[in-house]
Amino acid sequence: MTTSPISLETIKFHLIWNKDFSFNRENQTVSLEELVEFLIESLEDADKQTANKAENLLTRIGKPAIPFLVRGLRSGHNRVRSTCAMVLVRIGQPAVASVQDFYVRNASRPKLRWIAEFILSELGRQIPPVDARELEANRQDMGRKVLQFAKAAG
User: Fold this and answer.
1) Coil, strand, or helix at residue 24?
2) What is the pLDDT of residue 30?
């Protein structure tokens, strides 16, 4: 990204006045992906007002932000998770397939399953059925990853 921070007001001004989400700053181009990642990362330490601004900007970006927002649902920060969930709800229909996929992949993890169920219910969508064999495969895969991590650390 750039050497100096980008303010949310700078981003907001640019999004309002330009059709293109990428822009030049200090002879560097800030891509849409960098912009979305910056906005989501800024939520980790954001106060309520800043988080609200980031939420509005992410909603304005819309569909291109969906993969990053879905990834944000896995964050260890409550504000990141909750803001990503609300933006996905505000984006609406374009987010449904990605959230349903997230639900199916994470159905064995109660915290992640809950947030996906919340988003889908807010969008008026059915919770997709999950095959018990798929849940068990996810649990076993998670167990293998934990063992690999423990071996590498120890």
Assistant:
1) strand
2) 67
Run of H or E residues at 23: strand 23-25
- Cα(135)–Cα(107) distance, integer angstroms: 7
SS3 25: strand
d(CA 49, CA 19): 25
Quote the tokens at residue 147. 């063992």
Q: Compute the CA torsion angle 82, 88, 90, 96 (nearest 10 deg).
A: -140
For 42-69, what is each residue's pLDDT tens digit? 898 888 888 888 899 899 899 999 999 9
Q: What share of the chain is helix, strand, coil (3-state, %, to 5)?
A: 70, 5, 25
* Unique residue bearing structure tokens 């990053």: 68
What is the DSSP code (8-state) at residue 106?
Answer: T
Check residue 65 and give left, alpha or beta (phi > 0: left; psi -120 to 50: alpha). alpha
Pick the most confident of 56-60, 68-72, 107-111, 134-138.
68-72
Instruction: For residues 116 and 118, give the distance between their C-alpha atoms in angstroms, rounded to a whole number.
Output: 5
**3-class DSSP assignment, residue 29:** strand
